[in-house]
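Lay summary

Proteins are chains of building blocks that fold into shapes. Our project writes down both the chain and a compact code for its shape. Here are two examples, one after the other.
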Amino acid sequence: MKSHGGTPLPVSPDGTCRFKHAKDSGSGAFRHFLRPPNGSEIHRLHGTLPRDDFRRADDLLTRLSHHFLFSDRIWDAYQGEAAEAWENPDIPAGYTYLLQLVAHDLVQASVIFPRMDRRIGELRNHRTFSLDLDTLYGSGPAACPHAYSASTKFGFRSRLKLSRMRQSNKLVPAAKPAFRDIGRGYAHEDNSFPRNGPTEALLADPRNDDNANISQLLTVFIWLHNTVIESLEAQGAVPPEYSQEVAEEYRFGQARRIVTETYRRIVRHDLLPRILHPDVLRHYETDKSPYLETDADERMPMEFSHAAFRFGHAMIRPSYRLNTGHPGFSIGDILRTNSLREPYSMPLNEKWIVEWSRFFELDDPSLVNLSRRIGPSLSSGLEVPDGFGFPLRGTTETLAHRDLLRGASADLWSVTALIAEIGKRQPDLIAMSPLLSDITGLRARLQAWLATNWSRSGQALSELQIDTIAEDPPLFFFILFEAMAEAHGRHLGVLGSTIVAEVLLRRLDSIAPETGTASYPATGFETVRTMPALLRTLAERSGLSTASPSFL
């Protein structure tokens, strides 16, 4: 949620690099959702493009972001539905980090933070936008050898790298199996061979060491890949004329396809039904209604990457219980636990090894950390005073502030203009939502919420600022407000769901059908469609069912 550097090359599912000419529509440029908005359809603050009056826009968005941190009382009406009023009984916390993995798989901008004067055509997306686990595999073993472990004398690296769990003290038993953390290596500043000292993550996408929760989730997919490789080796399903080295590469391509299709099924059948408005999901999946976007443009819409899909930040809990042996950690501790912030404390020790029954519905529901409800309210602990929020003025900033600035930098659609454009193309989508169907009432509800939910002293919004936001709300803020107003924070509202469905479902529909695994040897993962099913199947087939520390 903070480290967004590095620019791995695009790669196809068979492990080969994919290069495209700059004029190709899929070459990495961003675009707008539906079509480029006209001048009057672009989001404005005080009637001005935010980048044209940065200081005034930043002041307004800073004040708005502070509302996010002091508005937990919006969930008071739901006390009793879950352990805490702000907890979402429908979405276990593991899906928060699965969303982060999907986000990393879809988007990696060419700069850490787009300046307010950055034009859309200048930004590049270094992801393939194919839901092919580019964030896990990178450009393959040849271009990203540091992420792979050499498994034979023939040199082709078919397995992904893991690290041995570190013991917090000599009295703690060693892990069985030993490899329970992402790949890490010792960093060094000279030409000597490092044998100890600070560590660095050995990943195709270093953002997956952003925090302890995402790095532990990544180990699940690393174990999945390596387990599939072992299954393919045991079956020996390789053309007899292949040399040993070519056979390794052949199996790697098969394994990547099997793992990628498993991941896509989970996104489609487990993740999206949890986060999308059920009426919008039915519109696309059951009714098979046509998509709003019908062309083959594969570029990433900014309204998705810089606004709608950032809703997962509102799902972050203030603390997590990771396993039976430790009482838990604050989100600040979890964000800090990586090779960038704590390079001398890696690999992870037993306190950080996740029992997945704490993050997904496996056996005992009482064990599960629930995600936060989706709304304009972020966890305490995301103020991040030590720099996680990328402060622009040397002062404490927030994750909400950064998200609002990202959207303000991109000349996104205004909310009302976007609603109108969707209504022209498919009025039945807008008709699903009383909120979207009544723009006057929508603005009144925004005004009332902003006036009621005051932030800390000195950062309250003025009446003029409240009117400005209600008249033309930032898309990211509105997506969260809509989820609160329409769905009690249990899933996205109609507008947020429409943007996410148009990007992800349309992309999944354009990719090879799920039956593609039929041409590969059976590995036991062919019917997996949910994260709980993946975890149980993986535990059974990899030996992790008896792991210590516990896997499930």
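And here is the second example, written the same way.
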Amino acid sequence: MSEQQKSIIVIGAGMSGMATAAYAQMNGYQSTIFELHETPGGCCTAWYRKDFTFDWCISWLNGSGTNNEMATIWDELGCLKGVAINHADVFNTVIDTQGNKIEFHVEPDKLEASLIALSPEDEPLIKEFCDYVRKLRGCMKHYPFLKSQGLMTRWDKAKMMWHFLPYMRTFMKTLALTMETFSSKFKNPQIAEAMNWIFYDRHDHFSLMPFAFNLACAAERNSGVPEIGSLGLSFKLADKVTSLGGEIRYQSKVEEILVENDVAVGIRLSDGTEHFADHVIAASDSYSMTKMLLKDRYPHPILERMYDEMKHKADGMIFPGCVTIFIAVDHDYSDHPAYNTFLLPDNVKSNFPGMLHNGIHVQVRNKLYPNQAPEGKSVLYITYLSDYEPWNNLNPESINTQGKNKTRNRHTRRRRSVEYKTTKKEIGQHVVKFLAQHFDKIEEKVEYIDVSSPLTSERYTENYQGTIFAWEPFMPVTEELEKYQDKHGPTLPNLANLYYTGQWSAHGGVTRSASSGRHIAQHLCIDDGKKFKVLIPELETENLPKNILESDNKYA
């Protein structure tokens, strides 16, 4: 390591890890990412079956528009350059057990008119919600993503507050009220229930703000889907890293973060090799980072309390995992809405292990991602939030380890019980039977069914119990963590030269994860007395690999 160029090691090639490496490269650091899997992206991924793409992640991507800091992130990383963005006019359609449909249009005027037509007696509440959406459309260009509040100067904060003044009342009102409380005021029971399902599944702890804000993003055409899909976006970012001189080492499992005199100096891999750098960035599960990689030697005052509550099953402490069912069908369902949530009667819900709420979300995936199914065919993407334990109980600990057929570098292989595999097969059958009421010819036209569980997410990303968003947002203790990080950074007390990033430090989706990588690079520059800069060179067009996950993902 030369004195002129410092080095960083990044644990994990998810979106936050790759963004960290890209921004670090722009600022003169030599970055090496160690990734346990054979592809980039972490949760932002897809796999292939026959001629179909099963895209596991992006249902909408904030920042896919223009003239806002979310979009600036993707401009700086070059991920959406030359990529077509597709949009839906309806954010979600909620269908109750009686077949009644409520459409949540992204345009607030159309949403207001359609809901009032359904329930004139709820006009004041409908107008109130749609006014929130209208108001938040205007603040989009001022919403801060380029710096965390902890990195902002007094002048930065003053400018932010000045821009936010016209919207402050809206933010305060929508943050102070949960959607569950707000929706309970509606007289029409169908709308009252449907409001809770705008985000596809039910989120009891969410405040009203993210519902209105994301509808506002969609109305501003700032939350479309990139035609290249989730894995395509991940490969774009991986190409950005390597084009800037960074390195990604796949099939490299980190077993320990090496520390000397309370300074993080490198990592040890599962093959015993050691690698050293000036800084170590954990773009991974923070529980795994502190408890396994650091051997519990550097406790965090807030995280330790969160871990304790998480282990004792505190309500809403951690965002749940997800069960996903992909159905490839030899039939065109483009006449159906792209996004649908079906509420289930109790006797149907009982067929789905771990289901937290009585509904499944169904996307006609190829309607917005036309390349994910051959012409005249469809991919249905079905999800529900799920508890972890019922799935873990299906797979006894005695076989919940890497199997006999593993090789040194196949760290995501797992043996699964017959009961686990049978349950997944049965779920696919139950879904098809239920959807036959709504999707013509599906029973006789199914070509392929693929089911993943929270255990799949756990083995693929090593996220605690397969969580897809880490900590539950809008909880008092998560707000406490944010305040601590604003003051001290995403660091551990008494340990120098280590940062953690991603979902475990920055709540939100793919865009928030990418922006957290920018923030880490800013911290590095501050540590080393450098001025943070952004370079935006031309990124060559790449050939995205196909079928790379086909052999591995059958071990889901």
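What can we say about the second shape? Residues 94-220 form one domain.
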